Amino acid sequence: MIMSTHAPISLLAASAVTLRDVLEVFTFQYDYNTTIVVLATAILGIGTGTIGSFLLLRKRALIGDALSHATLPGVCLAFMIMVALGGTGKSLPLLLLGAAITGLLGVGAVAFIRKHTRLHDDAALGIVLSVFFGLGVALLKLATQMKGGDSAGIESFIYGKPAAMLASDLRLIIAITTLTLFLSIILFKEFTLLCFDDDYASSQGWPTGLLDGIMLLLVTLVTVVGLQAVGLILVIALLITPPAAARFWTDHLRTMTILSAIIGMISGWLGASLSALIEGLPAGAIIVVTAAAIFILSMFFGTKRGILVRSLEHWRHNRSMDHQHLLRALYELTEHLPAGSSTHVKRSDLLNMRSWSDWRLGRALRRAQRDELITHDARSYWAFTEAGHIDAMRMVRNHRLWEMYLITHAAIAPSHVDRDADMIEHVLGPVMVAQLEKLLADKPTVPDSPHLI
Fold this sequence. Notes:
Elements: H1 19-26, H2 32-57, H3 61-84, H4 92-116, H5 121-144, H6 156-159, H7 167-186, H8 188-196, H9 198-203, H10 208-225, H11 227-246, H12 253-277, H13 283-301, H14 307-334, H15 347-354, H16 358-370, E1 374-376, E2 382-384, H17 386-409, H18 414-424, H19 430-439
Antiparallel strand pairs: 1-2
């Protein structure tokens, strides 16, 4: 038996959820209406995730918010016009057409304000968003008071009502998503250039205005078809959250776009399925919460920009810096000692040299000793091993080559150059060192420090 297309999505009407219910919902094998909703939201997530990647990198995230809020007056006006012409006002294609028209007007208003006034983007977006949404709320009140029309369900465009989706809505979402994917693939190179350097694209003769228009048209289309699924208030989350989550996993736009589409699909599929399984959970809100959960996981565990990965890299970098500074300090304390004298250094001398805490110095000493670069005697005096002395000479030489370069080519005073060299010496690669050697070809193997140590 097919469930009514307007029945609430809930499997808990009379009994607890079973494992079979879970499997059927998540594999699109439950009743007709639930399958329509889950498929529609999953496919919508693919479209919003794809075009949202370009919107995010274009730094136009709030454009989607202004656009979605600007659709409400169009929905209400379309309903009122249909009722005035003798209809019921329930034609979804015409309601979505009205939403698209006023949505584009809202985006155009933002562009006009930004171009012809001195207001910044945030002010233009705030004005358009509030004015269009306020107008939409006023028109909504008038629409509900009109005689001869059935205004029930118009409010659902604010928060979404996926339970009312029909097969025709699914076909529309599939068509818009297919168009979005097709144009995004065909214009991928052009969209990429537009996102990263639109001024260069314009100087090279690319039609940046047309490309921007196509991108915003695709954003408008997926926003409009997403109104019924998650509503105009939450649809921006499906446009921005998946690409923002994908950004933590990769530095490549192509991979980011694919990941964003997958995250959008999972958010729609998982959110709609959970809403179907648990009575009382609104599908639109759960879809957005699911996307937010994926974003939080990505923010912490993303392999490229995740908090944990970046914290680990920062910790490793600090340890490496301490290691290099220790070897350089030990070298500088012994480099001018008379030949044949002891080259062992006291721990207190190292503390004074680097102004470290005792714990931090102890950690660096233990690591260098473990790497067999330094050794100490019974009195806890420290000295280089042969391998450690070679490493220290290389580090000191790179540091002083950079200091000499800053003094001779950047006009930095010798008294200020040590700190600048400390900041850059840890990232000097072989190519940069070779260039410094070429510029300072007359310098000895390890040049003297150009300043007091």
